[in-house]
Design a protein that fits this description.
173 residues, alpha+beta, OB fold (Dihydrolipoamide Acetyltransferase, E2P), 2 domains, five-stranded mixed barrel, 5 helices, 37% helix
Length: 173
């Protein structure tokens, strides 16, 4: 069994009762787990699986693929304040999508993990603004070795940025 500290950055329905949970973890980078019973009203994960939740998780590594079996998790921060406005939730989602687009599976990156934690903490404390989104892009490009080119440098290297970027920036005018 393996363990890590991580943040949920995406949830996908797998079946009527299960979810695929994408985590950005400190120790293992981006990992994907299956939460069997994660959608059940009386399951072991009730109230624990939500976007941007910070938790200590334990999983059993898959022998055949990239979807590991989530065994247990202890929530350390629900980050309820991120749901105070549509704008803040959308910006947090944009940050997550952007990171997921540049990360390799199971590749540890402490600096990028720290960037996400700082960005989510900023959104908990303050309302999202255009300057913060552009700063996140600039820091991400710097940490990836692209200089301070921000969104343009990311677009040139990785292709398109997440579709919600334009919507985020429009809301933050």
């Amino acid at each position: 069994m393996e363990s890590a500290q991580g943040t949920i950055i995406r949830l996908t329905k797998l079946s009527d009762s299960s979810l695929i949970v994408h985590w950005f973890t400190l120790e293992h980078g981006l990992i994907k787990t299956v939460a069997r019973g994660g959608r059940q009203a009386k399951g072991a994960f009730l109230g624990k699986l939500d976007l941007f939740v910070q938790a200590e998780l334990e999983w059993r590594r898959s022998r055949r693929g990239e979807l590991h079996q989530l065994q247990e998790l202890t929530v350390s921060d629900h980050r309820f304040a991120l749901r105070k406005s549509y704008r803040d939730t959308l910006v947090a989602g944009y940050f997550s999508q952007l990171l997921e687009g540049v990360l390799e599976l199971e590749h540890e990156d402490v600096e990028l993990y720290g960037l996400l934690q700082r960005a989510l903490g900023w959104l908990v404390e303050k309302d999202a603004d255009r300057k913060g989104v552009l700063y996140f892009e600039k820091e991400l490009s710097r940490l990836l070795g692209l200089g301070g080119g921000g969104g343009q440098a990311l677009r040139e290297l990785y292709g398109n940025l997440p579709k919600c970027r334009d919507h985020c920036l429009d809301l933050l005018k």
